From TrEMBL, chain A:
Pfam families: BPD_transp_1
Protein name: ABC transporter permease protein
PANTHER family in the cross-refs: ABC TRANSPORTER PERMEASE PROTEIN, INNER MEMBRANE ABC TRANSPORTER PERMEASE PROTEIN YCJO
GO cellular component: plasma membrane
Family under the similarity heading: Belongs to the binding-protein-dependent transport system permease family.
Species of the source: Rhizobium fredii
GO biological process terms held by the UniProt record: transmembrane transport
Transmembrane intervals: 12-36, 80-102, 114-134, 140-159, 166-189, 218-241, 253-271, 277-300
From TrEMBL, chain B:
Gene Ontology, cellular component aspect: plasma membrane
ABC transmembrane type-1 domain location: 74-265
Similarity comment: Belongs to the binding-protein-dependent transport system permease family.
Top-level taxon: Bacteria
Main location: membrane
Keyword annotations: Cell membrane, Membrane, Plasmid, Transmembrane, Transmembrane helix, Transport
Locations listed in the record: Cell membrane
Chain segments annotated as transmembrane: 12-37, 70-98, 110-130, 142-165, 186-211, 246-265
Membrane topology designation: Multi-pass membrane protein
Record's protein name: Sugar ABC transporter permease protein
Organism for this UniProt entry: Rhizobium fredii
GO biological process: transmembrane transport
Classification via Pfam families: BPD_transp_1
């Protein structure tokens, strides 16, 4: 902590350490060290009742041994579907809503903005349960609404069927989190300087073409951030599936995500005992996937987008 | 002439789209709340109708209050969220002040080290966090939850507050130093009041996930006396799945506090965002 080059008083600067210490120690002790230790545990397992270093054996078991690999690849591909549906729907809807809200002449903006953000603040327990109720053939809210608009014949118990449960849950999750990209992109649209838009208007670029030619390129970095947040959130998801379908991610594991797979492996369920080391291995795989996604984004996407930033 | 008419059409279109989406966003919430105040027969026969004098009933709320533990879940959630939030904001602001105000060796490295936590979910360290909590004897103790949530919230808090503190003019702080204020006094009396809008933004963003979290209460504090409202509601729904009045009343009660907090802070949230906190 030498302060020779600083323009501040050269006395020993203990206050810097005092300011930093609480945050750094809590963050390190409960986040960085446990994460490192989890990564380390993924390289150990019980061999003949003693704990031994097994290298990448756990990982090869997870990826290749049918007893683990079937569940793992199922959870991973479900996770990919979950993410793709979010990217195709959540972010475009969020951008469209933000574009409408950012119109300076529009009234009631505050009301719309607040109302559309409401699902985002609700807990998964509420969201999972209410959609289960709505989609349940028992209560009949969805069937009767669909009948009222002439689509009654199309209704099916979507959450209970293997081929549709994952898509139904993804749509529920999109419904819940549309507010996030909307609010981020809305803020980005508001911070575009008026002069830029006035200049565009003088050149006759207005309406939709103004949005696509001027505003969209300027908010691309924010769309990138919204996308990477979606990615991290999706590959870390657990709560919605757990609440709506239970730890078994039914029907027949068709809604299993890496998060629920981790939960079952680490803590056990019904007759299966929890397995710390395979749990650590799955957590490490999730860490590597998220790290890979974030790095890809930072190196390839964000760097190119910087050019457009004001 | 033409221009104003097309503006009118466009305005109506925008209202139709936003209004339609608002309906989709609020419909499930409204469905819970209106049915929570109805008799069991009315919930099933007319789920979409608001309660009438004939169908109005508080039986669900009576069932819940007879059990009483809902209040203790609520207090647990409020305690954990409140204390975590206070620590996140205080420690986060202190670290952000150190990083934005002083030039010292390792400054950029420490900022990067903390920022890494924004993208990496703390949940992935659960295996080791549980072992740590067990060895510290903090299982089923709210302190464990507070510590975990503080660690989870600090990275974003430090990042946003650092950005904001960089914008505070140096003259003000130097004037304070000339007047003989200590660095601590400068932080608490000059800098903290100035970053209030940023603190509100951080508060909203960190509070919602903490209040709603299911994972860590499920793993670190599942005992009856330490259950949070999210975990409590989850268990309650499992037990009372046939008592629809009670379940809908419980869900309504779980919505209210977070909705009130959000309505109080929502203006601040957008203001903080547009001021350039998250870029």
């Amino acid at each position: 902590m030498s302060s020779a080059k600083s323009d501040r008083p050269p006395s020993p600067r203990w206050h810097i350490a005092v300011f930093l210490a609480p945050a750094l120690s809590i963050y390190s002790a409960l986040m960085v060290i446990p994460l490192a230790s989890t990564l380390k545990q993924s390289l150990y397992n019980h061999v003949d009742d003693t704990l031994a270093f097994v290298g990448f054996d756990n990982f090869s078991k997870l990826l290749l041994d049918p007893t683990w690999a079937t569940s793992f690849w199922n959870a991973l591909s479900n996770n990919l579907v979950f993410f793709v549906i979010h990217m195709l729907l959540q972010n475009p809807i969020g951008i469209a809503l933000a574009a409408l809200l950012a119109n300076p002449k529009l009234r009631l903006v505050r009301f719309y903005r607040t109302a559309i953000f409401v699902p985002t603040i609700l807990s998964f327990v509420i969201v999972g349960f209410v959609w289960k109720l709505i989609l349940s053939p028992l209560w009949g809210v969805a069937p009767s609404i669909m009948k009222a608009i002439g689509l009654g014949g199309l209704f099916a118990p979507w959450l209970g069927r293997e081929d549709s449960a994952l898509i139904a849950l993804s749509l529920v999750s999109v419904w819940q989190f549309v507010g996030m990209p909307m609010i981020l992109i809305y803020a980005a649209l508001l911070s575009i300087p008026d002069e830029v838009l006035e200049a565009a208007e003088c050149d006759g670029v207005t309406g939709w073409s103004q949005f696509f030619k001027i505003k969209l390129p300027l908010i691309l970095p924010t769309i990138g951030i919204a996308s990477i947040l979606t990615f991290v959130g999706n590959f870390n998801a657990f709560d919605l599936v757990y609440v709506a379908q239970g730890a078994q991610a039914g029907p027949n594991y068709s809604t299993d995500l890496l998060g629920t797979f981790l939960y079952r492996t680490f803590f056990g369920f019904q007759l299966q005992l929890g397995d710390t080391y395979m749990g650590a291995t799955i957590a490490s795989m999730m860490f590597l996937l998220i790290l890979f996604g974030v790095c890809t984004y930072l190196f390839f996407v964000q760097r190119r987008l910087q050019r457009y930033q004001l | 002439m033409f221009r104003s008419r097309s503006d009118l059409v466009r305005g109506i279109g925008a209202h139709a789209a936003l209004g339609g989406y608002t309906l989709i966003a609020l419909f499930p919430v409204a469905l819970i709340v209106i049915n929570a105040f109805k008799s069991r027969a009315a919930i099933f026969s007319e789920p979409l109708m608001p309660p009438t004098p004939k169908s109005f009933s508080l039986i669900g709320f009576e069932t819940i209050s007879a059990r009483g533990d809902f209040i203790s879940y609520f207090i647990n959630s409020a305690t954990v969220t409140g204390v975590s939030l206070a620590l996140i904001l205080l420690f986060g602001a202190m670290a952000a002040f150190a990083l934005s105000e002083y030039r010292f060796r390792g400054n950029a490295l420490i900022a990067l080290y903390v920022a890494l936590g924004i993208m990496i979910p703390i949940r992935l360290g659960t295996v080791a966090i549980l072992q740590l909590v067990v060895s510290a004897g903090l299982v089923n103790n709210l302190v464990a939850l507070v510590l975990v949530y503080t660690a989870q919230g600090l990275p974003l808090s430090v990042f946003i507050l650092t950005e904001f503190m960089r914008q505070i003019s140096a003259d003000l702080k130097d004037a304070g130093r000339i007047d003989g204020l200590s660095e601590y006094k400068i932080f608490f009396t000059l800098v903290l009041p100035l970053v209030r809008p940023a603190i509100a933004t951080v508060a909203v963003f960190t509070m919602i996930p903490i209040w709603n979290d299911l994972w860590f209460p499920l793993i670190l504090a599942p005992a009856e006396q330490t259950k949070t409202i999210t975990l409590g509601a989850q268990v309650f729904i499992g037990q009372f799945v046939t008592d629809w009045n009670a379940v809908l009343a419980a869900l309504t009660l779980a919505i209210v506090p977070v909705l009130i907090l959000y309505l109080l802070f929502s203006r601040q949230l957008v203001r903080g965002l547009t001021a350039g906190a998250v870029k």
